[in-house]
């Protein structure tokens, strides 16, 4: 889209609607189901953030925040999550989003082909440092604003550009919107912040990271950094509007249901800390293993059919945690050998499991037109397992668990949170954090009950 076209197509009505939603939305105007879902997404993401804190990428991200994003102004500083050291608002958001992004167990949204909570949760925690009286319902309203704005920005970007960009390219707008709300900015400041955030958002190419997995992951650390920086720049008079993904006329349909359709209720929860594209095949293999009596060492061949992006995931035995989280055959093999996939399987000795390596070598992947036609709205796969006794077990078409198609209930989300949080935080701290987060839906709750569990180092 040319700069001339952007100027001619600017859509003031869409921005006015977005500004009113972002800055004036009352917590009471949000459906109870959306507020309850927001609390569960907050809990789920905090569990992953805590578990990721000791991982190398998290340690490096926090170190970089200290070196590069320190602040001498207490009004623009915050503690890093599960660390406690003080850096700038942008640095603290970057550090938490980077460590969360590098343990790929956080929520996502099918239409965006990416993730929102990974930046929205750090943004809330960072901004709340300066809001000691922040109520639980208002905290959830701000979080929901982040999800709703970022999600639509992501859909608008995917609909108007040819290549596939990481979540950092668009979730930056959600962070800017949250900051505008919680820092009580004006509509004019919000407009400039969204323009700055979109302009500087990291339009990194996702498939480069898929081909060679690294700590870059989905670009969300930089998305959080840019979004928070954009809000502070706009607050201080820096200009940057308009944001094309908001104000261009051709994206208006993607914003038309703002405040009516609640995207927060349609996020998926990941049962496994690996790329969502692998989950349908993992679940297909899991269900075959649960339904038939066979041992992993009796498997002669595994055939996986899925959508195009899924079969482009890392094809061989990984030697790093980053590669393990983006490897389809490794994830399926781990499920068949171990019966589940946890942090210990995608790191350390889990990367050298000889039984898993043997199955990876016996795996064939195929792109399926049937599964491709349903992507990204659905994440489908089917798996065939050939056994040494000649049996061929076929899963049939399987959709990944945890999303609207096969949702997890409250108890399942809490159980998943505890499986990650308890080893990192200990039983008492993990339970205290869980209770405080789930209580945010109550009228008299305050976010400081959550905050007291967030900043002490592990």
From TrEMBL:
<dbReference type="InterPro" id="IPR036148">
    <property type="entry name" value="MmgE/PrpD_sf"/>
</dbReference>
<feature type="domain" description="MmgE/PrpD N-terminal">
    <location>
        <begin position="17"/>
        <end position="245"/>
    </location>
</feature>
<dbReference type="InterPro" id="IPR005656">
    <property type="entry name" value="MmgE_PrpD"/>
</dbReference>
<dbReference type="Pfam" id="PF03972">
    <property type="entry name" value="MmgE_PrpD_N"/>
</dbReference>
<feature type="domain" description="MmgE/PrpD C-terminal">
    <location>
        <begin position="272"/>
        <end position="437"/>
    </location>
</feature>
<protein>
    <submittedName>
        <fullName>MmgE/PrpD family protein</fullName>
    </submittedName>
</protein>
<dbReference type="InterPro" id="IPR042188">
    <property type="entry name" value="MmgE/PrpD_sf_2"/>
</dbReference>
<dbReference type="InterPro" id="IPR042183">
    <property type="entry name" value="MmgE/PrpD_sf_1"/>
</dbReference>
<dbReference type="Pfam" id="PF19305">
    <property type="entry name" value="MmgE_PrpD_C"/>
</dbReference>
<dbReference type="InterPro" id="IPR045337">
    <property type="entry name" value="MmgE_PrpD_C"/>
</dbReference>
<comment type="similarity">
    <text>Belongs to the PrpD family.</text>
</comment>
<dbReference type="InterPro" id="IPR045336">
    <property type="entry name" value="MmgE_PrpD_N"/>
</dbReference>
């Amino acid at each position: 889209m040319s700069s001339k076209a952007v100027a001619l197509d600017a859509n003031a009505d869409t921005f006015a609607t977005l500004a009113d939603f972002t800055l004036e939305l009352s917590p009471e105007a949000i459906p109870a189901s959306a507020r309850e879902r927001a609390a569960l997404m907050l809990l789920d993401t905090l569990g992953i953030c805590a578990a990721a804190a000791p991982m190398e990428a998290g340690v490096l991200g926090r170190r970089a925040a200290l070196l590069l994003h320190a602040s001498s102004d207490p009004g623009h500083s915050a503690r890093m999550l599960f660390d406690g050291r003080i850096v700038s608002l942008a640095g603290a958001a970057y550090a938490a989003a980077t460590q969360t992004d590098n343990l790929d167990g956080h929520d996502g949204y099918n239409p965006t082909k990416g993730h929102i909570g990974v930046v929205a949760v750090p943004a809330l925690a960072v901004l709340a440092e300066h809001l000691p009286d922040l109520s639980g319902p208002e905290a959830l309203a701000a979080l929901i604003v982040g999800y709703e704005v970022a999600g639509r920005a992501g859909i608008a970007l995917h609909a108007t550009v040819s290549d596939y960009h990481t979540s950092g390219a668009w979730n930056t707008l959600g962070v800017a919107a949250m900051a505008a709300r919680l820092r009580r900015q004006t509509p004019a400041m919000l407009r400039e912040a969204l323009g700055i955030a979109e302009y500087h958002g990291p339009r990194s190419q996702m498939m480069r990271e898929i081909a060679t997995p690294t700590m870059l992951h989905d670009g969300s650390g930089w998305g959080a950094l840019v979004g928070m920086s954009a809000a502070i720049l706009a607050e201080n008079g820096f200009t940057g509007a308009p944001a094309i993904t908001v104000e261009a006329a051709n994206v208006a349909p993607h914003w038309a249901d703002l405040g009516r359709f609640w995207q927060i209720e349609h996020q998926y929860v990941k049962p496994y800390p690996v790329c969502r594209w692998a989950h349908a095949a993992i679940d297909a293999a899991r269900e075959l293993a649960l339904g038939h009596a066979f041992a992993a060492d009796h498997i002669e061949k595994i055939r996986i059919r899925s959508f195009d992006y899924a079969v482009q995931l890392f094809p061989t035995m990984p030697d790093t945690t980053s590669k393990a989280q983006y490897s389809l055959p490794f994830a399926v093999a781990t499920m068949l050998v171990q019966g589940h996939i946890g942090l210990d399987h995608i790191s350390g000795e889990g990367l050298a499991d000889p039984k898993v390596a043997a199955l990876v070598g016996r795996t064939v992947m195929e792109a399926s037109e049937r599964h491709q036609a349903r992507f990204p709205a659905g994440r489908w796969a089917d798996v065939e397992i050939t056994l040494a006794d000649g049996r061929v077990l076929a899963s049939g078409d399987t959709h990944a668990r945890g999303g609207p198609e096969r949702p997890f209930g409250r108890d399942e989300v809490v159980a998943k949170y505890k499986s990650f949080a308890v080893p990192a935080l200990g039983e008492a701290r993990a339970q205290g954090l869980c209770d405080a987060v789930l209580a945010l839906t109550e009228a008299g709750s305050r976010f400081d009950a959550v905050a007291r569990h967030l900043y002490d180092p592990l």
